[in-house]
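batch_manifest entry 22 of 60
target: Efflux RND transporter periplasmic adaptor subunit
source organism: Flammeovirga aprica JL-4
requested by: lab member K.T.
priority: normal
notes from requester: please return tokens only, no post-processing; we will run our own comparison against the previous entry in this batch. if the run fails, retry once and flag.
--- input ---
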Amino acid sequence: MKKNLTISISLLFLFSLLFSCSEEEQQKKEVIRPVKVITTTTADYLSNKTFSATTKETKESSLSFRVGGPLIRLNAEEGQDIKKGNLIAEIDPRDFKINVQAKKARFIQAKAEKTRYEGLLAKGSIPQNEYDQKLAAYLIAKSEYEDAENALKDTKLYAPFNAIVSKKLVENYQEVAAKQPIASLLDFSAIEVKFTIPESFIRYFDYVTSFKVKLNAYPDVVFDATLKEVGARSEGATGFPVFLYLTTTKDMIKNTPVGSGMACQVTVEMDQRNTSRGDVILLPIYSVLQKGADKSPSVMVFDPAKKVVNKREVRLGQLVDKDKIQILGGLKSGELVVEYGANLLQDGQKARVLDFNPTASK
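--- output ---
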């Protein structure tokens, strides 16, 4: 009986010892955590961007006379540079001058009659209705005289704005009718280009230095452009509309006429003088740790050679698109950063990589 009890106690002690050793070995066994990582790349938001665009309706005007008659002067050739106020064409004014003289004589006579009848009315020598007839005749003569003078002025046609003659529609000495188009003028200073920039790009618009425009119809010609305005975001739109003025010359318009609705490409050139901007990395904000005695921001970087994660302090920039943050220092392109669960890891801890995003930049 005693013997059996002794054997049982010995076995129990042996099992306890073995279990204790196994537990210690298990505790000593290092935990390898699975991690999801992203590969860092430098953000390219400060590199030049190209957007699809279209030209807007330009200021084009068909010129015509308000009166008709034979042309005696035509200063309009296609492609010609016209300044505001320049004489474009003139109708023979001879008949209009004769008409002005006739209307003027009638007006002078009617005015004299009105003045005489005013005196007679004041003396009571005539009834009111006789004076009213003379007054009406005077007003009609005055209106006809003014119309004749205006018609004489309308025998000359002037450029309403600085422009280029896009079309010449008549020849000199030709008989033209009132409102018949004489020539078409194109205001080359008011050609607009419209395109849309994404919401994420608007914060970098202060770094824009210039705009270059290539029309699909003329791929070898590069137009400069100046900013007109950045519009408010339209309802249902995917970004902000941008409007440019196309900078053109007389030769450009003559050789590469631009119309409304033409497809083009706008290159937005960015300030590249500070090359450090090109080294900026964007990371999800939740992958950055804010812990430690000094609260220094850091990330966990996976070392594929040693299969460990290392804590790395980083220098932060601005928030981008609400869920990303600029990394201005501490990382370089091509490194593997733990995306989720970095706060559960220790510096130097073993880890294994799950499937990961190929890049983290934009």
